[in-house]
Amino acid sequence: MPNSAGPGHIVVDGSNIATEGRSMPSLQQLNEAVTSFMADHPDVPVTVVVDATFGHRIDKSERAEFDEAVANNELVAPPAGAVGRGDAFVLNIAQKSGATVLSNDSFQEFHGTHEWLFEEGRLIGGKPVPHVGWVFVARNPVRGTVSRQATRASRKSESKPAKAEAPASASTSKSARKGKSSPLANEPMPTPKTPPPGAASVNELVPFLDFVERHPVGTSCSGVVEAYSSHGAYLRVGEVRVYVPLRLMSDPPPQSARKMLKMGESVTVVIAGFVPARRSIDAGLPGMVDATAAPSEQEPPARPTAKKTAAKRAAATKTAPNKAAAKKIAAKKTVPKKTAAKKTVPKKTAAKKTVPKKTAAKEAVAEKAAPKAAEKKAATKRTAKKAAVKAAVKRAATKTVAKKASTKKTEKKA
Length: 414
Hints:
Helices cover 47% and strands 15% of the residues. By secondary structure, it is α/β, with parallel strands linked by helices. Mean pLDDT is 74; it is low at 162-199, 291-305 and 333-355.
């Protein structure tokens, strides 16, 4: 390790470690690295820092756990708009606390302003080794073109006040070489009163509400250790997940949850509080809940809230029918006028019924006139036949007269 005394405080470059050997970061890989380092160095405080885009680049299946880790201060992200992304934030924390940085990055663009990176014991690297696990070794930052440019730029911009502050940084480095950290390094991170915006839910709604009804704050329950995190452990209690932070395991808090809880072990815990916005359940080991204030000791109004909302809905439904009834009454009052107008329509239909009478009269007249026309036609046909017969008789008579005349002429010639 960096020195015989070992590191006094570790600041983990979470984005770098989570991306080691990968194209995209993995929260699971980061957790494995941190828990493995804490197992090797159980007495060393650890602060894990990730950049502002970390939560958007990890797999969707890990985002709920990430939001929970941020809410419990297991992971720290730089403020929005921070210059230098997460690297500058990591180095500033390490410089302020005299800590050692766990990262495989050399931070070349910061060599001009953070010369302490080249001091012995200020940089550690780590890699996962197949069939072995994570292995950590001391590192020296790599100097390159970017490093030389950053160093020249820093020397040009140096001023006398900046040089006057050099002894302070030197004293800080001395304390770091001795394995000591500043008082702030050993203080726990403040716990936020409200979860970050957009934090995902830890438990399903119905199991969470049922658990809240059966286990108010201060009551005990038993669960099985399901997973470790860098600052606590998770228990499975029936259908819900219960979080036990390090600060609620012992006083002072242990450096690793592995010291207090074993994987698969059945543990009795005391409910310390709830975070309704994320459906999170916090608990502590017996004797720790009363001694330490939990971050969210207010019980969520689980079922009562549901009753209140039901009452509000019922009130809304009561007022809604009144309005609807008033509208229906007003509609009924106005409708008869329209229906009355519609009832006058049959007069027109009555007028339409008179039309068949005229047509019937015309048909009757036509029926009476039809026989007369037929009789006229028949009479004309009969007269035509008679005329034809008379004409035929006349033609026959003229033929007979002609024959007689021809016979007389032949007789005279003879």
